[in-house]
Amino acid sequence: MTDAVLAISEASDGGRVLALSGRLDSESVTRLWDAVRRAVAEAPARRVVVDASGVDYCDGAGIALIVDLLRHPREPQVEIANLKPAFEVLLKQFDPHVLEHDLDPEPPRGPAVEEIGRAAYRIWQDIRTQVTFVGEAAAALVHAVRNPSTVRWRDVWRICEQVGADALPIVALISFLLGMILAFQSAVPMKRFGAEIFVADLIGLSMLRELGPLMTAILLAGRSGAAFAAEIGTMRVNQEVDALTTMGLDPVRFLVTPRIIAALLMTPLLTLFANLVGLIGGAITMQSFSIPVVTFMKEVDSAVTMTDFMAGFVKSFVFAILIAGIGCLRGLQTGAGASAVGDAATKAVVTGIILLVVVDGIFAVVYYVLNI
Amino acid sequence: MNVSAAGPSQGANSSPSGGSERSERGGPLTEPIIRVVDMDAGYEGTPAILENVNFDVGRGQVFGILGGSGCGKSTVLKHMIGLLPPLAGEAWIDGTDIVTAEGDDLLAIRRKFGVMYQSGALFGSMTLLENVRLPLEVWTDLPDDAVDLIARMKLELVGLEAFTGHMPAELSGGMQKRAGIARAMALDPSMLFLDEPSSGLDPITAASLDATIRRLADSLGVTFVIVTHDLGSAFVAMDRVILLDRRAKGIIAEGDPRKLRDDTTDPRVRAFFRREAEPAPA
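YS: structure for the whole thing
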């Protein structure tokens, strides 16, 4: 059993003596901290001497207790007496006045108007960066088309596998369930009017024109967009991007081009796959409403035109560029530290999905105006 | 008026004087607090990097693990702190074999030591002050202002008192490493394991770190195990070192670093301590 004791006595000269003894460590200091402070506070403008002759062990917590008495301005200053030389050495490592105030306080927040202005400026800067990046990426793509030998095709095929083949199971599952849910939700009310056969029209048009491309793109934004941002972000943290720059290699051409090419190759294929699986999901559901698969498919064939198919298919190319571009951009914008990589991945997904929906809305308006 | 603060007995650092009983640096030691016995160091499924490694570290000793790059210094350290099981052998920390310890026993051993990793390993989402406060908040019941003061004192000790509110990502690698040392010392553990503490530090900071290590060892009897390439630190701060060699797959020298430098006849040891290049192959 070890202990520390604080004994308070009044000196004949009117001062107060705080006699500390025993073992001063984090456990005993926890119990003594308030008592020692109170003992000093109760003797304002009086001489206070801390007699440490009985202290036989004093680690960082014990030294902190003594420093705490010395760091606050007081008249007369607290005196420390009879501290063993071994602990005196530890005490002398610290300047109590340095520890009086926080030397690195949080900067004060500016007025609300200033904060709003800063936020608006950051958004403007972000938009500028995105526009600049679109230009750089477009230039890099044109360069790749003109000089295919400069593209790192081994990287392209590796990324194709990650973006395309590895995403097949999740795209299949989501599309199948989407087709089934759409069929169920629409078949029940339409059956009341004897119009359940038109569920095939609904599923065919909605999957091929809208849901197939959009759901595939959202899945890829969450999967591949985040992966691009995290991979490039980690390279940035490890200074690999700096190394590319100092070696005279353009990071956009070296890192972004292969990813955009891979996304351009894989996203349309995944969209076709999602369309097909969605239709299969709908067809299987409609069997329970006494509509055979052949009838379902013939109805889809009669309802959906090549224009409808192309309207959705064209979107998938634009979505591919958006997903890969935003993922790479956020990766290249990564700050320092592990949390910055997480931030980059999150931003890639959030920005990617927002842009996908916005662009999809623009497509809808354009198609309406063009009567497509 | 008397205020008593009684607490449970302390296993380590209970020397009444607060200091170790080292008679001379590098000489006979107090009882070992760390023992590595017949250790084969390496990663499972790969050949051992080091075989049959044996050494003791005395209480209050500043002990160095030296050797060339890739010789297994950091691997031995990982075995000693229970992060990686060795391929064979034992690592006794204050009477418990950390290799076989589990659950509460393992936690109890880990509370006795602090570790500073090569990169500092600070938590990126916390300020420096929060990083150093964390172990104090988790493992002690100290009042909040005491925790704050202790954390700031530890940061002052490594010269970072003006950066308490900074995030690790805003600091240089050397500063992060110093903050890692401050965090390792937060709970005043009886043992400190430091992996390359002075690499990346400027000479003045490295020297003040050496001085801090010696002060803590001499005043409080803290035991240090330091993995390093820094011969300057070894000569100034360390009581005893072992020199590991990749080709020999083990320890090729052990003792006072100054004596090894001055008296050794082994060409490999002499080359290391005198910073001589390896002879070119004929």
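YS: worth flagging: Residues 120 and 177 of chain B are 4 Å apart (CA to CA).
IM: good catch. Also Chain B touches chain A through 53 residues (CB under 8 Å).
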